[in-house]
Amino acid sequence: MLKRIFIWLLRCTHCRGFGIQSPSAYQFVRYVINEHYPYYKYDDLRLQLNEMDTVQRLLAKLYFRLANYWQPCMVFNVQPAYAEFISSGCLSSTITDTLPLSLRNHTLLIMPADYATIHATELIEFVTQANANLLLVIEGIHKRKVKPLWKQLLQTDKVSVSFDLFYCGILFFDNRIKQNYKINF
Known about the structure:
Blueprint: H1 2-10, H2 23-33, H3 46-50, H4 54-70, E1 74-77, H5 83-89, E2 94-96, E3 107-111, H6 113-118, H7 120-128, E4 134-139, H8 147-155, E5 161-164, E6 168-172, E7 179-182
Parallel strand pairs: 1-2, 1-3, 3-4, 5-7
Antiparallel strand pairs: 4-6, 5-6
Helix pairs in contact: 4-5
């Protein structure tokens, strides 16, 4: 708990989209990342939330909002704890634990830190072929093993906008001007 407070204090100047000039990035921060109003499914998912720790609760709600916002046809997720939240956010999405071969439709990839580090070269290769239909989330971007991978992903030409939420990072691959945002989440 003390660590969470310390992280929040370090990032308190990056709250609620302050300093973000891009209207689309500002809207994403305000209405997806830092949305505090209860969504329609939060009451149905309350039992699962009670079984999680604070960070897992934050991430579960974030993944719900990301699925609701992105409306992905396919979701790559190797953590079964979040599957219910993702499927509640987008009822039409298919959740799989194998990387999709094509990104024709909207795709959401959620990678835990250990998976990302084990498959780092495969992930970098996948990202170099990514298109605007991909939204990539990597957990634990400030862990010692994941930090070099995160920095390497930020340097690729395909990544346009990135959001550092400390507990995870979100990467967009559309044609916007390259920006890296640090958000207090």
